[in-house]
């Protein structure tokens, strides 16, 4: 006969390692990776799809949604920065985003420079709906490439 504690632990472990829990973890990791914290959401997506290939569509959607939400959070933080912070922002990033505008946020998924693009776009008060669309499109394209690699 199984002990009540064994059933409880078994149920908890089954829940933690379920596809649903993995999708929640993927969303959270993708959000965190798009902020100023270093984390590889690509590796999380690749690992998830390796073990749960049947969940490719929701995994790509949630990774894109989480990563875009994180990028937009950085954008909104940029909007809060005062004018005197200009010296602290990367001059090359500011020139680049000033020259190309919101389409530059398509590349916000790039390591290192991506966070700076989001922050600069917010600080320059570029149109947030357009920044959102370009960010989401770039991130989706990246995750589709990662998924292709994971699914073969």
Summary tags:
single chain; 152 residues; mainly alpha; 7 helices; elongated
Mean pLDDT: 86
**Main β-sheet: number of strands, strand sense, barrel status?**
none
Structural class: mainly alpha
SSE string: HHHHHHH
Contiguous helical run count: 7
Distance between the termini: 44 Å
Strand content: under 5%
Relative helix content: over 70%
Regions with little confidence, pLDDT below 50 for 5+ residues: none
Total strand segments:
0
User: Rg to the nearest angstrom?
Assistant: 19 Å
Shape: elongated
The total number of structural domains is: 1
Could you explain how this protein is built, in words?
The protein is mostly helical. The protein has one domain (22-151). 72% of the residues lie in helices and 0% in strands. 34% of the residues are buried.
In short:
The protein is mainly α. It has helices at residues 4-16, 19-33, 41-51, 56-80, 91-100, 113-123, 128-151.
Topology:
Blueprint: H1 4-16, H2 19-33, H3 41-51, H4 56-80, H5 91-100, H6 113-123, H7 128-151
């Amino acid at each position: 006969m199984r002990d009540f504690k064994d059933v409880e632990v078994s149920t908890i472990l089954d829940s933690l390692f379920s596809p649903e829990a993995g999708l929640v973890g993927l969303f959270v990791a993708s959000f965190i990776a798009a902020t100023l914290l270093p984390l590889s959401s690509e590796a999380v997506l690749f690992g998830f799809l390796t073990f749960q290939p049947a969940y490719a569509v929701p995994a790509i959607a949630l990774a894109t949604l989480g990563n875009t939400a994180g990028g937009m959070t950085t954008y909104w933080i940029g909007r809060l920065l005062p004018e005197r912070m200009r010296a602290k922002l990367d001059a090359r990033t500011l020139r680049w985003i000033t020259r190309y505008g919101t389409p530059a946020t398509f590349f916000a998924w790039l390591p290192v420079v991506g966070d700076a693009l989001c922050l600069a776009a917010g600080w320059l008060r570029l149109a947030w709906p357009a920044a959102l669309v370009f960010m989401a499109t770039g991130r989706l394209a990246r995750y589709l490439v990662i998924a292709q690699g994971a699914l073969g």
